[in-house]
């Protein structure tokens, strides 16, 4: 008989306690919906591990002309070859970074009754707590070993944010918005454009936060913390604790993104790859599951302008006879909708 994951999904959904609830109940074997397909598990055994390290960019010289040029060159190189870099001396105080990790932990580790009122897979809710079980409706995706608190651009005010992490979340978000503007300026220059080009195109709009909690997993070799994917956004700023587990694909091998203390991981999203006409790459990445935990991270996604709706496509200044457009124009919201209705390689939906 064919296996139907919907019963397992419903049983977990009904608890409104997420993956942490499964772990707290004392399971020693993970439910089948979390187990990766056998061909993937077999492939994993034969894949080589990359020893390459994601580039590190130090923002401390940004005020000096020569320093800024060096930073722009490093960001260009990393964005073209990796689509990923680590950022140090970025200006967000370490107390805020530590507070954000702590606030995320406090939300996920509070009494389940308090968390349950936020439990929802309705993407129109400004604040929602969920385990990524709705992905099971998408062909070719398994449930993964994490719970997430989402704070979307639909939040009307701080009062909607759970009290246990409200103050730090608002403070962190304000810092991230400022850093996002700085990075988009540097990325504009790296593309040979005016520093305000990407901001003028609203690439700094629509900020959404995903506060992830990866509990310890009894069978980490069978599942993933986050499945392999690219980000359907312009830019991602990721804060991660010191646990490790994030990996990026480089030359068909997985490279570990080693945590750097008080550093941030920056990655190029699909939309920035598209508007750069493939000059920058949006790299495939994932998070492996682990026997020890929890691993805690907070991803900030710049999703672009949606009100009024804005068309995106390759930037006109980057197009020429020698470098014709590789994508047609589309609305950011249409991109996101298509991304979540398909398995991985969604960028190609809008490729000419």
Automatic annotation (TrEMBL):
Cite the GO molecular-function annotations of the record.
2-oxoglutarate-dependent dioxygenase activity; L-ascorbic acid binding; metal ion binding
Fe2OG dioxygenase domain residues are 204-304
Q: Name one GO biological process term.
A: coumarin biosynthetic process
Report the superkingdom from the record. Eukaryota
Query: Does the UniProt entry include the keyword Metal-binding?
Result: yes
Whether Iron counts among this entry's keywords is yes
Which Pfam families does the UniProt entry name for this protein? Answer: 2OG-FeII_Oxy (PF03171), DIOX_N (PF14226)
**The family this protein is said to belong to:** Belongs to the iron/ascorbate-dependent oxidoreductase family.
Report the protein name in the record. Fe2OG dioxygenase domain-containing protein
Organism, scientific name: Solanum pinnatisectum (tansyleaf nightshade)
């Amino acid at each position: 008989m064919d296996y139907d994951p919907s019963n397992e999904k419903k049983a977990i959904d009904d608890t409104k306690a997420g993956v942490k609830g499964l772990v707290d109940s004392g399971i020693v074997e993970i439910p089948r919906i979390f187990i990766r397909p056998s061909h993937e598990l077999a492939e994993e055994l034969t894949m080589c591990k990359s020893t390459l390290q994601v580039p590190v960019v130090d923002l401390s010289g940004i005020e000096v002309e020569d320093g800024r040029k060096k930073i722009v060159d490093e960001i260009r190189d990393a964005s073209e070859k990796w689509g990923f870099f680590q950022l140090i001396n970025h200006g967000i105080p370490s107390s805020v970074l530590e507070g954000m990790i702590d606030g995320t932990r406090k939300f996920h580790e509070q009494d389940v009754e308090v968390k349950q009122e936020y439990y929802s897979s309705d993407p129109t809710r400004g604040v929602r707590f969920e385990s990524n079980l709705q992905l099971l409706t998408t062909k070719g995706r398994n449930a993964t070993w994490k719970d997430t608190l989402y704070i979307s651009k639909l939040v009307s005010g701080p009062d909607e944010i759970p009290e246990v992490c409200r103050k730090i979340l608002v403070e962190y978000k304000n810092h991230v918005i400022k850093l996002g503007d700085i990075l988009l300026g540097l990325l504009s220059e790296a593309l040979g454009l005016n520093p305000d080009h990407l901001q003028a195109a609203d690439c700094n709009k629509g900020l959404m936060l995903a506060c992830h909690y990866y509990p310890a997993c009894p069978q980490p070799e069978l599942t993933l913390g986050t499945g392999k994917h690219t980000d359907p956004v312009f830019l991602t700023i990721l804060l991660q604790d010191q646990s490790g587990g994030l990996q990026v694909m480089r030359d068909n091998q997985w490279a570990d993104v080693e945590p750097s203390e008080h550093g941030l991981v920056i990655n190029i999203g699909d939309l920035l790859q598209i508007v750069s006409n493939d000059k920058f790459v949006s790299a495939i990445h994932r998070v492996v599951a682990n026997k020890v935990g929890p691993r805690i991270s907070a991803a900030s996604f710049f999703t672009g302008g949606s009100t009024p709706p804005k068309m995106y496509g390759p930037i006109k200044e980057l197009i020429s006879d020698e470098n014709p457009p590789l994508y047609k124009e589309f609305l950011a919201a249409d991109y996101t909708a298509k991304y979540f209705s398909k398995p991985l390689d969604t960028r190609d939906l809008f490729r000419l």
